[in-house]
Amino acid sequence: MSPKGQSALGENKSPQMAYRKNSKTVCFVDVETLSNVFMYSEKRKVDKVGCKRKKGVWPSP
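Structure (tokenized):
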């Protein structure tokens, strides 16, 4: 039985086969750095029309 392929991976290629064939090395991040990334937050205000400004600057259209 051939693996069910996905259109982005090519014909008859499973995600697992694509991962194994990839020659790029996997980069691991230490736990402390990863947890600090998810702790980041900032306060933003939304005006009456639903637009957000960052540090007092309107977003460009």
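The longest strand covers residues 45-46. The beta strands are 45-46, 52-53.
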